[in-house]
Write a structure and sequence with these properties.
The protein has 315 residues and is α+β, with helices and mostly antiparallel strands. The relative contact order is 0.15. It has 2 domains: 121 residues, Aminotransferase class 4, branched-chain amino acid transferase, N-terminal domain (D-amino Acid Aminotransferase, Chain A, domain 1); 159 residues, D-amino Acid Aminotransferase, Chain A, domain 2 (Alpha-Beta Barrel), CATH 3.20.10.10. Strand 14 and strand 15 form a beta hairpin. Helix 2 packs across helix 3. The strands form 3 sheets. Strands 8, 9, 10, 11, 12, 13, 14, 15 and 16 form a 9-stranded mixed sheet that branches. Strands 3, 4, 5, 6, 7 and 17 form a 6-stranded antiparallel sheet that branches. Bound molecules: 4'-deoxy-4'-aminopyridoxal-5'-phosphate.
Length: 315
């Protein structure tokens, strides 16, 4: 994946040149992982010459909730943060798909492991972004030998930077062994999610995904997917724990996330899933998701926030 550098950053309360958005090596968050982050997409609709932010209020609400878990308070709301994101995108003037990375972090440059009594800062950057999983129509996954962090270790429902060392172990071992991604088991042996995506399987015609109490991130794509499966595909969706061997026997399997969008998994640990190619539910869901995020389905326009003001028609 090609990464281009941002020109600007929202940093210390203002939009500044990206080169000024720097922290010292003693910064608390850098040493102890005491930061939370988000990941959000803006989709460029060429026909309307418009960029749509996908569910920015939900993303910023989750960011502020994650921040609360780390005892961070900000004088900011999902609405005010959405406006900052829009201002930043105006400064960048992107006309392509983008990824936004908000980050809230403990900014003190001190020694001392704790959460309380520290300063907090919040930054946002935006970069052009397309696919995250290269083969998102036939991914091959494995079960990781690493286990997912438990709610009583580092809560998965908060997008806490320190916890992503766990995701990095999971992803690197999978990729270096030739897989695209890995599925991670809880301490009790049920599947939680992937390294940075939620998971779904279709078994006996029903869609099943782990509940939010199985150490998953409460994914915004997951929430959107459940709605699309029910409303657009007429599917039954159940939230319940999933055993490892159910994946070997299911008809379809897919992963969802801001970066991964809807990624079809067609092989697990060298075994074909279902017929070994992307199945009809996943294919229809990918189309419904794409229609929703690009603003092509008016029913889901309320998920989208336009970035560029429409130029008024001449009278
Ligand atoms: N799980 C983890 C661990 C993640 O990092 C992500 C990416 N944010 C997801 C699931 C998917 O969440 P979302 O759909 O909100 O991006």
């Amino acid at each position: 994946m090609e990464i281009s550098m941002p020109k600007f950053a929202y940093f210390q309360g203002k939009i500044r040149p990206y080169s000024e958005a720097k922290v010292g090596v003693l910064t608390h968050a850098l040493n102890y992982g005491t930061a939370v982050f988000g990941g959000m997409r803006g989709y460029w609709n060429q026909d309307e010459e418009q960029m749509f932010l996908f569910r920015p209020f939900d993303h910023f609400k989750r960011l502020l909730d994650s921040a609360r878990l780390l005892m961070m308070e900000f004088d900011l709301t999902p609405q005010s943060l959405t406006q900052v994101a829009i201002d930043l995108l105006h400064a960048e003037d992107y006309r392509c798909n983008v990824y936004l990375r908000p980050l809230a972090y403990k900014s003190d440059e001190i020694i001392g492991v704790k959460l309380h009594g520290l300063q907090n800062e919040l930054s946002i950057i935006a970069i052009p972004f397309e696919r995250y999983v290269t083969n998102d129509t036939d991914a091959h996954v494995t079960f990781s030998s690493w286990r997912r962090l438990d709610d009583n270790m580092i809560p998965a429902r908060g997008k806490i930077s320190g916890a992503y060392a766990n995701s990095a172990f999971i992803k690197t071992d999978a990729v270096l062994s030739g897989f695209d991604e890995a599925l991670v088991l809880n301490q009790d042996g049920h599947i939680s999610e992937g390294s940075a995506m939620n998971i779904f399987m279709v078994r006996n015609g029903v869609v099943i995904t782990p509940p939010v109490t199985d150490n998953i991130l409460e994914g915004i794509t997951r929430r959107s997917t459940i709605e699309l499966l029910r409303q657009e595909l007429g599917m039954t969706v159940i939230e319940r724990s999933i055993d490892r061997t159910e994946v070997y026997l299911c008809e379809e399997f897919f992963m969802t996330g801001t970066a991964a969008q809807v990624t079809a998994v067609t092989k697990v640990d060298h075994r074909p899933i279902g017929s070994g190619v992307m199945g009809p539910v996943t294919e229809q869901l990918r189309q419904a998701f794409s229609d929703a995020v690009y603003g092509r389905n008016p029913k889901y326009r309320h998920w989208l926030t336009p970035v560029y003001a429409k130029v008024a028609e001449p009278a």
